[in-house]
Write a structure and sequence with these properties.
528 residues, mainly alpha, Glycosyltransferase, 3-stranded antiparallel sheet, two-stranded antiparallel sheet, 19 helices, 3% strand, Endoglucanase, polysaccharide degradation, hydrolase, cellulase activity, Glyco_hydro_9
Length: 528
Amino acid sequence: MGSKTKGCCGWLIVALVASLVATAAVVAIMKKKAGGGSGRKLKPLPVPGPPGAIDSKYGDALGVALQFFQVQKAGKLENNQIPWRGDSALDDGKPAGLDLSKGMYDAGDHIKFSFPMAFTATVLSWSILEYGDQMSAAKQLDPALDALRWITDFLVNAHPSDNVFYIQVGDPDLDHNCWERPETMSEKRPLTQINTKSPGSDVAAEAAAAMASASIVFKSRDTTYSDSLLQHAQKLFTFADTYKGLASDTYPKLQNYYNSTGYQDELLWAASWLYHATGDQTYLSYVTVENGKAFADWGRPTWFSWDDKLAGTQVLLSRLNFFGSKQTSNAENMGLKMYRDTAEAVICGLLPDSPSATASRTGGGLVWISGWNSLQHATNAAFLAVVYSDYMLTSQTAAVQCSGKYYSPTDIRNFAISQANYILGDNPMKLSYLVGYGSSYPQQVHHRGASIPADAKTGCKGFQYLHSTSPNPNVAMGALVGGPFQNDTFVDSRDNAVQTESSTYNSGTLVGLLSGLVTTSSVAQSFT
């Protein structure tokens, strides 16, 4: 499987060296452990009914995971349940006459990057749309909605006119030269915008996807807000499609942090969500007839991430092929079939005993693509897998075929379960990578606020807390840390940001994955 994604954080640290090469013996063990796959066609499984009994393991983990969004909130906090957090960044946006105080900090630092933040909102919206009933059954829907709106409120305010969007608050270089709590930071927080002369189609289109998907979430809950989100989404998409260019080309410094490697995937992603939100055939034609061949890279599976939205788009559009779409032309249906075929290639690459399975795994069974933030790809892939398996179940699709072998929705779900279980502690380290879940989890998360006592007076230079070997005084509940090396090892050191830093965008798909596993249920055949 191809990958566009590179490392995402920007300051230099000493990375710990570990073996990153999986042996043929490990792959053989993986195949033996996995099971699944049949040389003959399978029969459809029964369609699940309403949400059933709650699996307490995944329900508890979901409740923990959602708390990280509270940890990451900026602005004037409401009903704050994180005792060591307080109001911060209250003046963000004031130089431009805007209120950009809300939103969420990106990771262990205090920059607001609109690109990954918007991706977080999009996948969180998708998770709610697919699994809102499951979240509700687990009593976790309200925290998910709260987190989503905290981000979309920021995105709305960051779009003050049709062709202007603010993509960053803060200076990463200044920020990374400080180690301080967000509540006491005093360095300048400049604003970065894209406009007609300084384009950023990737960021604008991702924001359009976020607000289009969120508009569906809030449609039955707050009609006025939903309408506003949709209007912003449509205008941002037009802006992104009309004034094409990469934000990281416009602002080369971004290449050190979130260096998007293309904007075509975001345009398809945004148009797909706009079609789901509006039913407007022009968006469907955009992704199929007009730009499918040029932008979609049909037939070549890739890894879903904050950078590359193709695999997510393929799975999202495959739901139209599974459940049907009104008034689609033959050419549009052909395009949708190509998206679904490529989505199946993605799934076939994930199943460990599939003939086309990726060999990029750890001995413990984790999909492993990159040393930096290694859990990102496993979490994202598992989320897509559980969604796709539920599309199959609901449509009574018996199997996917991978080079002559057939795999049922249960096989695909079992892959997702294996990744979730690894994250929650079923791994060679016997360590939960979800902070606050289980009896053993990382104690030195690379996170400024968590590492500094709430009453400490550090100013900008609190680096003694970065380099301390003591556990964090504050628990970053719900943080999904970067994860293990390819030999399944993990070094719990705050200086080891490669493995111990967490990010909001990892949490978005983790919430979706856990919500899909918390109980069994059919998915809605339409979002509207």
